[in-house]
Design goal:
This protein is an alpha/beta fold. 30% of the residues lie in helices and 15% in strands. An eight-stranded mixed β-sheet has the order 10-7-11-3-12-15-6-16, with helices on both faces. A two-stranded antiparallel sheet has the order 1-2.
């Protein structure tokens, strides 16, 4: 259907960018796949209302974080000593003193395993709970990928009070900037399932979110006028010409207008409103302020926020970017990585508890894998997917507990191996999505949210 020679799709395109007065290409410019159908089935009782996933991209070492090995040789245990935590008999690395004080709120899994040593594919396994078809490095995302945990939670348990169902910030995870990891989007379910990507630096003097830069000269009244204009443009079209793709686009526009106009989500993005003392507590670096922004978003009703540990400028040519410490492992952890994580993570747990949000917020800290037991000739640790540690807190998580164990050198699981499908099943179960819950793919085939994963009984009962 056309109006004065202009295709309806073109009007929608212009409406979503020009008429609104902002670019939403990366944030909300998804159109629902014409063949995709809504999830169906019976949802369970949610044990948490929201979820924050902190992804320590690059692979944090188990030895210098949650699973020190003080009795191993120096080339395995490294130069740092274990310290007591707030739980008797439980020890963390001395690099995490503030996190050690939070151990009574944590469940540490010391037997996490993927068996994959490649960043992107082990990462996709952790982020989706589905074993990738390839274990190669730098595999680009494809249309047959499994949806991420963030995508599934956002689609099946959408927010009741925010147009943002699930969010990734402050940047996607990548090895090469041109090739993001698979497992970060809606996969074969299409763009309507994509989590909303907020590219930003919340530590900047003024928060600017890429793709969400409405002009200061565009007040709420003008935004509403443009929405009404789009409604009048749409009215003459024959409703019989609607398609799922166009209807999906309409929903995207509704989300965009809802976000722009007013409400708690818009306020949540105004991180400058946060008291200076709270911002200081989280740390005035990009990671710390990103975690603070995540807290603000879940407080505003966003169901799941994933914070990816941000890259430093120019680190794509470095030999130890992010947590990928192939060289100078000890100095990098001591001077940069652990201080940032330790302070921010402890601040988040205290802040959630102070606000009465910890009991209803599941917090998950993980990376794509761990590091090799033996320190290499450059003083670093290399990729190691055979065993590593992750931590959970909040919601129904039993604080002061440990699941599984690694062997004497932190090389392989010694007790109770936990795989990504088990972790995904646990997150879904806590969020009220039974691990056997089915949804329909674009070809109307039933798909279970997890394949072979069993929720951890210590957390889910």
């Amino acid at each position: 259907m056309r109006c004065r020679g202009v295709p309806r799709r073109e009007l929608l395109r212009v409406g979503s960018a020009g008429a609104v007065g902002l670019s939403l290409d990366r944030l909300l410019a998804a159109e629902r796949d014409p063949g995709a159908t809504a999830p169906h089935g019976s949802l369970g009782r949610a044990r948490a209302r929201s979820c924050i996933v902190i992804f320590l991209s690059g692979g944090p070492p188990q030895h210098e974080t949650f699973d020190p090995k003080p009795n191993a040789p120096i080339e395995i245990r490294g130069p740092f000593a274990p310290i007591a935590t707030s739980v008797a008999g439980l020890h963390f690395s001395e690099l995490l003193p503030r996190t050690a004080g939070q151990a009574h709120r944590l469940c540490v899994i010391r037997s996490m395993t993927t068996g994959i040593h490649s960043h992107s594919t082990s990462g996709a396994y952790m982020l989706t709970g589905q074993r990738p078809r390839s274990s190669a490095e730098s595999v680009p995302p494809g249309p047959d990928d499994w949806p991420s945990i963030a995508a599934v939670v956002g689609a099946i348990r959408p927010s009741e009070s925010s147009p943002l169902r699930s969010v990734l910030l402050p940047e996607p995870i990548f090895n090469n900037p041109a090739i993001p990891w698979p497992g970060q989007d809606g996969g074969f379910m299409g763009a309507a399932w994509h989590p909303h990507l907020l590219r930003c630096d919340p530590a900047a003097e003024r928060l600017q979110i890429e793709g969400l830069a409405a002009s200061e000269a565009l007040p709420d009244r003008r935004i509403e006028e443009r929405r009404e204009l789009l409604a009048r443009l749409d009215a003459p079209f024959d409703r019989r010409q609607h398609s799922p793709a166009l209807d999906g686009h309409g929903r995207v526009l509704d989300d965009a207008f809802s976000l722009l106009r007013s409400g708690s989500t818009r306020t949540a993005l105004q991180i400058e409103r946060e008291p200076a003392a709270i911002r200081d507590r989280y740390g005035r670096h990009t990671f710390g302020q990103s975690v603070l922004l995540a807290r603000r978003l879940i407080e505003a009703g966003v169901r799941l926020v994933q914070v990816n540990f941000p890259r430093e400028p120019g680190d794509t040519s470095a030999s130890n970017p992010l947590w990928d410490t192939h060289r100078d492992n000890a100095a990098r952890l001591r001077d940069v990585l652990c201080p940032q994580f330790d302070g921010t993570f402890a601040a988040l747990l205290d802040d959630l508890a102070d606000r009465g949000l910890l009991d209803e917020t599941l917090v998950v800290v993980m990376g794509e894998f761990g590091r090799t037991p033996k320190i290499n000739g450059a003083g670093g640790r290399d990729h190691w997917g055979n065993v590593f540690s992750i931590a959970l807190a909040g919601g129904p998580v039993p604080g002061g507990s440990v699941i599984g164990a690694s062997d004497a050198t932190g090389a392989f699981p010694a007790e109770r191996p936990v795989q990504p499908p088990d972790l995904a099943a646990t997150i879904f179960e806590v969020m009220g999505i039974p691990h056997g819950y089915e949804f329909r793919d674009p070809l109307a085939r039933p798909r279970a949210v997890t394949t072979g994963g069993i929720p951890l009984r210590e957390i889910c009962g």
